[in-house]
Amino acid sequence: MGYDGKNYPGTKPSTPFHYSNVEGINAEDLILTSEGLPEKQIERALQQILAYESRQKTNFLGYQANQQFDFKPDLSEYLKYHVNNIGDPFQSGNFTVNSKFVERAVLDYFASLWHARWPYEKDSTFSADWRESYWGYVLSMGSSEGNLYGLWNARDYLQGKTLVVDEAVKERKIKASEDGMKLSATPRYKILKPKVHKNNENAYTPICFYSLDTHYSIIKNMRILEIATFFEEASNKEYKCPLNYPDDYPSNYSQQYIADNKWPTEVPSDDNGILFIPALIKLVKFFAEKGYPILLNLNFGTTFKGAYDDVEKIISAIIPILKKNELYERKVEYAPGKFDTRNGFWIHVDGALGAAYAPFLKKRGINIPNFDFSLPDVHSLTMSGHKWIGAPWPCGIFMSKVKYQLLPVDNPAYIGASDTTFSGSRNGLSALILWDFIARNSVEKLVSRISTDLKKAKKFVNDLERLKAQIGIDIWIEHSANSLTVRFKQANPDIVFKYSLSGEDLYVNGQSRNYSHIYIMPSVTDKMLKRLLDDLSKPGAFPEQDVTRDIVTGHGLGFK
Ligand SMILES: *Cc1c(COP(=O)(O)O)cnc(C)c1O
Hints:
Number of helices: 13
Strand order of the largest sheet: 1-11-10-9-6-4-5
Bound molecules: pyridoxal-5'-phosphate
Order of helices and strands: HHEHEHEEHEHHEHEEEHEEHHEHEEH
Shape: globular
């Protein structure tokens, strides 16, 4: 069905129409053909799409994406423009239909909020220690891009790489042009890498550490960037694990997360999703003593449990280890006779969710760990703009410091690279959306906004407890401290779809469990929560689960 009598611009369909049905959408109305579609059909289809999105938004509870924006209608005017912030935010460039001037204001605000030194300084015009100032940009993707960019920078920095203009290419181009060919005069960069010394063959092999509760983008980025995790390096080198089960693990830690070679695949985290510091210390010490530079990803608001790693405590715990093993600061000889003094470690904070509101929660007096540039050893930080803040499309912020860019120390002017961001073209409207949000919300308003969210989360926990007593089954209610998420036994598929509930499989005491969770975003109303509670109180809301089933992790490390 659906394919007959239609004209296609190229190949014909090879199988019957078989994509899954979506409630309220007639997929046949959407099939595109070589003639385009009649106006009536386009309108019908667009109405269906709008009705679908609007209905699903009404009950949207399962993800940390705010669906409520206060944009005034005048912002939609900008959809008539292609605003592109291609290249570095601090270099205006010739693509003048950009909003980099807005982007810079947004970045300055977040730099200030996150205790970084601002404004950005590109050279020593204003101060001798200009390298202490922040550098960052507004992402075209969300924190997945911020994580990728941060880890990429971290990898190259720890590998001792330095970016310089390749003068040889310039000379060759000038010579070649004398033979008649016109050649691009854009400078080519080359990467200088230090030689590995015999007394430490691991000096430029960064090893990454991240907790079990880490977002999958970090795991994916490890593969893209070919950064070894401690587990991979230990497995390849057949190292003996310094952790013993169960003494060195958090209580309730399932052995299922420990590989046959006795190494955990990720740094253990506790029941609440918080990185377990005693285990991290032992793991970092083991690799630091072997001379490996340490790349640490910490989470501020984990994806499923909304947990905050204690960034400050972790840093204080590992600094003595780094100092003892000459990894706190070290000299990198990136070219013969040319040295750069760098850290032998990098702390990246994945604050996709939490970095947006934690400063306001703190102003409210809520006790959550420090996580930002108030800690001098934090190297990079990322946040998603479409999560707690809310935006019509994915966006976010990456922030680091000038001193961690791969500029040569001896001649910074040498570089002038404008292609400093991950993508080339960048969405210039994202900066505008973030600017508009901040412009319309005082800190006081945001403090009150996050307090309301947190109160709602706590109230929902109580409501669920009441429900549990009423229906008489254990529905595994859990809520990590000061998080915006509440998790419970997975509801039936109809409820999952209706409320867009995301799920996760966890091992608990050796048994597998399916959880659902909700996220209290500013768009979540009391009415929505009441509807969900009503549905959860109906018979069959919590189907029985097979607790002996194998969980296949999505981490793709090739073992489960
Ligand atoms: C959502 C999330 C990400 C990825 O962010 P996107 O905006 O979806 O790219 C990364 N880390 C954590 C902890 C997240 O919750």
